[in-house]
């Protein structure tokens, strides 16, 4: 099938903000695509050519892409940069520049979907000698055969940002509409496999029956089960009747997959971070039996056996070079708390069984591998849970988790099966959409950040300007990120792509027509940059409204 057909669909999707319309457009298209191309189209509709658990990336920096576009249309890189500033993104700039050159035709061949997909995938495989020029050659091959709109979307797929307002939810609904399968069945198949391409293929070929047979598979990350807020330790334990209470560690959540000899570690956003913390893989190998499994735990950074800031852990994960030195400088520890697969799927077992199996199989004589500290609580021994909480805070941890021992593990949900009780008041995760340069000593830094929450259909609504809680290092880091994601700059004001997630504390929610959300935050303070979260994880206007005390 021609790539232009997919591009027409992208354009139609970008032209509407209505979720139902987007779903129908995609559903109609999915029906027409043949079975081998369907999984590819599903990934490409999400703006990528790799499944979420893949370690591979195309590895084309924005600068290189701009250079390739400049070469194809015969302008300078500066011209491309100017267009990017004007259009707001590289894809838009490519389209504009191609159109301006419309008298010359670039097309040497018609692009089809499979060719674009496989060429983009091959980019990830190119490494070693002259890899950059070899990658560029591939990109040029695509771009020089592309029409203006094709160039727009090839560019956007390379930077993995399609800007068509389609997320996994819409794709899932479109699959269910196209192949006439229950939404809940498609949802479950997605949560278990984390592979929408596969879900689409099975839905088309085998319908609901096929989807019901899909299950967890080590090596493919699953969406983690998330926690709700507990209103109080006593109340929650009384409601559950009995509970497993565990220390809540403040690090990063990891999902550990072993399949054959290969161990992979995934973050909460299902990024593969195996390469960043190789020492942990060695510890895990020693501590677990040689069977396929999926386990979950929290990795924290320590100094003298005490937990240190969560930011250190993030730095470890982000690091690509000097890993040896980081291993020495920032020792890490794993606290295991769940087992999703051991020889076979275990998520339908109650937590009590999953935990017991974890205890039976893990060798905790290795210092860095631990089980999360836990107690069994009932309404008769609530004080034990309170003591665990106090101990947790005294030891530099975050609070406690209160979990229902009878419940299965349901990927991707946030329900009362698992609760969290923290020492600090609740915070909000927001995305930065703009900022203002500071004055005086902060003139080179962006001192104030305009932040937004999400509303249904992925719309962003501004909610506050936050300017406090930032030390000089964080300011410098944020300013650098802001420049990386800059769309436009006017005077001291800058607008950015919604990429940077901040966790914000505040004193009160107030009504405020000045902000898109209709509400604002009094005295907002940045707690930290949440690199472990993405745009899909930020808080919603709905949640803000439900928290508003009136
Ligand atoms: P938060 O911002 O509070 O960490 P979150 O949105 O990242 O919340 P939640 O599911 O709401 O995620 O909170 C639970 C998180 O707490 C888990 O994702 C995990 O990272 C962490 N955690 C720490 N210790 C435990 C534990 N013993 N059991 C389960 N989760 C734990």
Explain briefly what this protein structure is.
DNA ligase that seals nicks in double-stranded DNA during DNA replication, DNA recombination and DNA repair. The protein is of the alpha+beta class and 550 residues long.
Characterise this structure.
- The protein has 550 residues and is α+β, with helices and mostly antiparallel strands.
- The protein folds into three domains: 3-158, Orthogonal Bundle (DNA ligase i, domain 1), CATH 1.10.3260.10; 226-422, D-amino Acid Aminotransferase, Chain A, domain 1; 428-547, Nucleic acid-binding proteins (OB fold (Dihydrolipoamide Acetyltransferase, E2P)).
- 41% of the residues lie in helices and 23% in strands.
- The protein contains 20 helices and 21 strands.
- Strands 3, 4, 5, 6, 7, 8 and 9 form a seven-stranded mixed β-sheet that branches.
- Helix 4 (62-73) packs across helix 8 and helix 6 packs antiparallel against helix 9.
- The longest helix has 18 residues, at 196-213.
- It is globular.
- The model has no long low-confidence stretch (mean pLDDT 92).
